[in-house]
Design brief:
- 54% of the residues lie in helices and 0% in strands.
- With 157 residues, the protein is an all-alpha fold.
- Helix 1 packs antiparallel against helix 2 (24-35).
């Protein structure tokens, strides 16, 4: 189907889906389910300004794409799985189901994953401290050399 024959609503849907990092194949399927339109992946790629096929897309669609992507990247609060409580709740349900079905290996694995989730294993946060939990000592290169044997003659030990 040619790009010019798509309704504005469908074009907007395509651009916003691409801005949310949906693949062209996923968008094709979603457009078929949502609007009953059959389009190709190449047509979809024509609305993605980050791809070669979409380098000449209209300024209107480029602006919509950039704004949608910016909002998507900044607002992870709308994505349920980004919250620890939602992940733990899902792990709880899966663990109970695995246990009920007698799949103790899976249940054990899910419990371990939940423990890691609660313990902060899935974060990028790192805490650095010096000896005894104190502050990290920062030395310059000059300080390092000053701590070496002073006034040592070259070639002598």
């Amino acid at each position: 189907m040619a790009q010019g024959k798509l309704a504005e609503e469908v074009k907007t849907f395509i651009v916003q889906a691409l801005a949310c990092f949906d693949s062209p194949s996923t968008v094709v399927t979603a457009v078929r389910q949502e609007f009953g339109e059959t389009i190709t992946r190449q047509t979809v790629e024509g609305y993605d300004p980050t791809k070669r096929a979409g380098r000449d897309c209209a300024a209107k669609w480029r602006a919509l794409f950039e704004e949608t992507r910016k909002v998507f990247l900044e607002d992870t609060s709308r994505i349920g799985i980004s919250h620890r409580a939602v992940r733990l709740r899902a792990l709880q349900r899966m663990s109970e189901k695995a246990e009920t079905q007698g799949n103790m290996v899976l249940a054990s694995s899910l419990l371990e994953q939940a423990a890691k989730e609660v313990g902060g294993s899935y974060t990028n946060r790192r805490e650095l401290s010096g000896p005894g939990g104190g502050p990290v000592e920062v030395k310059s290169l000059a300080d390092f050399y000053a701590d070496l044997t002073p006034n040592a003659e070259p070639g002598t030990s």
